[in-house]
Every structure is written in C-alpha cells, then in structure tokens.
Specification:
This protein is mostly helical and 386 residues long. 73% of the residues lie in helices and 0% in strands. It is globular.
Length: 386
C-alpha cells in the first residue's frame, strides 16, 4: 500500500492538457469504432461503402477526419504518460522499470478481457506488448526519442509506399459479412465470444504485427519526446507555443490532403497506405498541437468544451471500456440487437450520444472520486499484489 500511495497522483498534480487531449481522442476513437460496433466494417474494402448521400457523407467525414488519426494520438499520449510515470518514480527513489513492467502486465490483462468478452477491436493488448519494447527507449534523451520516432515513421512508410505504386485496382474480396451479421444480431454469448476471437485474429495476426509496431511505437517515442521537451508543463514556454503553431500549419493541410486522396482515388493502394501511415499521424499532430495551443492561449479561462473533454479524459481507460459495454449492449444480440440495422449517420449520432453520456457520468463520478474504476484497479495491480 505504501508504494501505491507514494506514486499516486493528486488532483493538483494532474496535467490538465493531457486529460484534455485524452478526452478528445476518446471521442475520435468512438466515432471510428461506432461504425464497427454497428456493422461488419472490419470486413469491408473501404469505410466508404454506402450509396445514400447522408450515410456516405458521414463515412467520408470519419474516413478523412478520424480514421487512423486517433489511435496514433492515443499512442502519443501513452508515450508521454509513460515518461511521466518513469520520472515520478525516479524522483521518489523507486524502480520505474519494475513497476512499468507490472503496469504493462495489468494493461495486457484488461485488454484480453476487453477483446474476448466485450469487443474484438481492443487496442490495449497491442499497447501493452509494444509498451515492453518502448522500455528499451524510454530513458533516452528527448532528441534521441524524436530521431527514432520520425525515422520509424518516415523510412518504412516511404519504402512500403514505393512498393505499392502500380498496385492499383487490387481489392480484398468481402466474404462472410452476412454470417457475421447474423451472429452479432442473434447469436448466443458463446457464439459471440468465438466470433470476437475470429475478428480479433483477423487484424492482430503475425502478418500485421510489423504494421502495428511501426505505427504505434513511433508515436510512443514522439509522445515521450514531447513530455521531455516541456509540451505538458503547466506554463510552457513561448518557444514551445511557436513550435505548435508551425506543426499545426504544416501537419494540418498535409494530413488532410493525404487522407483525402483515397476518396478521389478509391482504387489506389498507394494512397490507401499513405492515408494510414502518413496522413493519420500528420492529422493527429495537427489535433495535438491545436489543442495544446488553445489550452495555452486560454489557460486563464474556463472553456466549457475543454472541461467536458477533461472530465472524459481523466478516466480515459474506464470510458474506453465503458463505451464498448454500452455500444455492444445496443448493437449485439444480448442487448437491443441493432447490429447491421442502422445507417452510418444513425450510428454516428448514436456514438455522439454515448459520448455525451460518458462525459456526464464522468462529471458525476469525479464529484466523489479521484480516479476512474479501471484506473484504480490498474494502479493497485501495478503497485501491489491483487
């Protein structure tokens, strides 16, 4: 108990800008995931598939502004949080590697339960596994983390991108969506567990492992760089704010251009790859820099929207898990069974409603408690035997 109490973060120690970014990222994750909660999006060639105008506009919006941008954003924040975790334990004379290993083990346990008992689209397992690899880098200098992070994004993406030029027109055949829809609409809980396992392995297999490593580890590294470079200080320097302006000015237009190209060239394998490998992280950096700049600019004011994001972000893991519980209850057979019965626009509106519920629940929760329930268990697992 002593170690847990020693490492606890008081309300006054919390970094508000981190919670703000986590809350915003949670919204983006939900807007992407809701299309998978509500139908077999995992097995479609493209997120943009509807013929109706309203649904198609909703899909284009998610494809350009959200897809492949928010899990890198969460990875960036994970890396920043890991560096903060290390520095606080080192300052207290404790072993950060020992406790971080336990922290990743706890995250892995939560991820396994989430993936196979609630929803197949879990990202926590991947974060936990790559988190162990991140330990090899976490104590390097900010400059070293930046070099490694940028190199792991730019070099592989350039090489793979060149290999994909000329591969236009290749499509993966869509199979089994009717069977999958039937399972999630009417299947037993055991049948759903089997389908979740199949869906999870469809994405998280050995062939996909290099892609996940090269898309998530660099963002961990760059998040670590940001933390060590003072991006999340309560009063960041003017030079840091100017850096955010430069990043936003460069990353925003470039990210939107790259992410929008597959809309105009849907058969292009090259642009589809660039959409996720380069466009996604660029837009993530745009969101991060703009929000940090806004938080810096209006730091003396109480912006309601920022406060709402912050409430959700303070319990980001609990809310991430809870959104899966709520959405599967809405769409799966053991709930309302709406899977495959809603259009994309309807699904997005449901997702926004779920997020509003999560914000309100977080607001009520933090009137009485300092931590979200999942965060509290995770901390206890990290610092003592459970």
């Amino acid at each position: 108990m002593g170690n847990e109490r020693a490492a606890s973060i008081s309300k006054g120690e919390r970094i508000q800008s981190l919670d703000l970014l986590r809350g915003f990222a949670l919204l983006g994750i939900l807007l992407v995931n809701i299309l998978d909660f509500s139908g077999p999006a995992l097995y479609r060639n493209s997120l943009i598939h509807s013929t109706g105008a309203a649904d198609r506009i909703a899909e284009v919006f998610v494809f350009v502004f959200a897809q492949t941008s928010f899990y890198p954003m969460f990875a960036f924040l994970f890396g920043a949080g890991a560096v903060m975790f290390y520095s606080r334990l080192e300052a207290r004379g404790q072993s950060p590697s020992r406790y971080f290993s336990r922290r990743m083990t706890g995250l892995l346990i939560i991820g396994v339960l989430h993936a196979f008992l609630i929803w197949h689209g879990d990202i926590l397992i991947t974060y936990a596994v790559i988190g162990f690899i991140f330990m090899l880098f976490i104590q390097r200098s900010a400059r070293s983390l930046a070099k490694w992070g940028l190199s792991l994004i730019l070099i592989p993406s350039s090489l793979f991108g060149l290999l994909m030029i000329g591969a236009d027109g290749l499509q993966v055949e869509e199979n089994g969506t009717e069977r999958i829809t039937d399972v999630y609409q009417t299947g037993t809980f055991l049948e759903l567990i089997r389908q979740r396992a199949e869906d999870w392995y469809y994405v998280n297999n050995f062939l996909m492992a290099p892609f996940f490593l090269l898309s998530i580890l660099p963002m961990f590294l760059l998040g670590g760089y940001a933390m060590k470079s003072g991006w999340f200080e309560k009063n960041p320097s003017v030079e840091t704010a100017k850096k955010w302006i430069k990043i936003a000015a460069a990353a925003g237009p470039a990210g939107l251009l790259i992410k929008g190209m597959p809309v105009f060239f849907p058969a292009s394998v090259f642009w589809s790859y660039m959409h996720q490998s380069i466009g996604g992280p660029l837009l993530a950096f745009f969101y991060i820099s703009i929000l940090l700049l806004a938080s810096y600019t209006f730091r003396e004011k109480r912006i309601v929207l920022f406060q709402l994001f912050t409430y959700a972000g303070r319990a980001s893991m609990s809310n991430y898990l809870l959104q899966s519980v709520i959405c599967t209850a809405l769409f799966y057979s053991y709930g309302l069974g709406l899977y495959g019965k809603t259009g994309s626009l309807q699904a997005l509106l449901i997702g926004l409603s779920v997020y509003a519920v999560l914000v309100f629940m977080s607001f009520l929760w933090f009137k009485r408690f300092e931590q979200g329930p999942a965060e509290k268990w995770w901390r206890r697992f990290t610092y003592r035997n459970v």
